[in-house]
What we know:
The protein is mostly beta strands and about 325 residues long. The chain has helices spanning about 5-25, 320-325; strands at about 35-40, 45-50, 60, 70-75, 80-85, 90-95, 105, 115-120, 125-130, 135-145, 150, 160-165, 170-175, 180-185, 195, 200-205, 210-215, 225-230, 240, 250-255, 260-265, 275-280, 285, 295-300, 310-315, 315-320.
Amino acid sequence: MNPKNISSAILILFGLLSTLMLSVNVEAQVPRKAQIAFTSSRDGNLEIYAMGADGRNVRNLTNHHSWDAWPTWSPDGRRIVFASRRNGVLADLYVMDADGKNTRQLTDFPGAVGEPAWSPDGQKIAFSSSHRDTDGIDIYVMNADGTDIRNLTNHPESDWAPDWSPDGRKIAFTSSRVEGTGIFVMDADGKNLRQLGVRVGHEPSWSPDGQRIAFRSGWEDNNWIWDIGIMDADGGNPRRLTRGRFRNEDPSWSPDGQRIAFMSHRDDMNNNVEIYVIDVNGKNLRNLTNDAGWDGTPSWFDPDMSSYAISTVGKRVVTWGWLKRLGR
């Protein structure tokens, strides 16, 4: 080959590699290992923290004199949406990078806003909000940048705690429109609403494969004893995972579908709340946090289990699996 042609080929190849490296350099913004984001009062104020899935390497992501709560990872792991009262009396939604930087306000709503849930494609965020002129709570959805807010439920009773199905087609939520509260599911546009089979259920959390839903329920005739259970996605075959005279709540599936993190008062029924994890067969209960503060609202992210696009090169989607093959 002509030396000039070889030099030209090398320059072209170098240019392509440089472009590719710039295109996929978002990996530095994504956690390299499985993480759990959570809310904690360990420093005297509710803030957002993150830790490894084993409970180690805890780090503070927010530091504000007002409270921050309900963190939820974006599907690509690059951002965390959360609720905060930092702009006034009522809570609004904010988003920040996974390292706690570049915080931006998403909502400026007439009612308190909380419990955000990111859609699997990263394009939408569902959340619950109260109405300033009533006592009700409804489920809303908006674009991930805070635009185009729409009310999905609009019911005289309260609807809260939304969670997307993995395919993005449905949203499960808690509702007081039945006695004792129950779990309902609707299409992502708010249509085709129906109750699932659990008589009394709260805080639905869809499994990564879409086949099951974890939830909190009072399995015993005691308003102060709550346990974590799972059921089939159609509401059938409910099974109880935790037992004991404790309050267990807010379940969150691990991305591999093998474990469920949740918050529990089992160490102190009055004030101290910690985060635990349990296998989906109800075995191998482990404590992840252990401090004098309140630790709750766990949210998982694992880059090894994420197939979400983290970058685009032209029209091509670059996934984690593609990046791993590139690095071999």
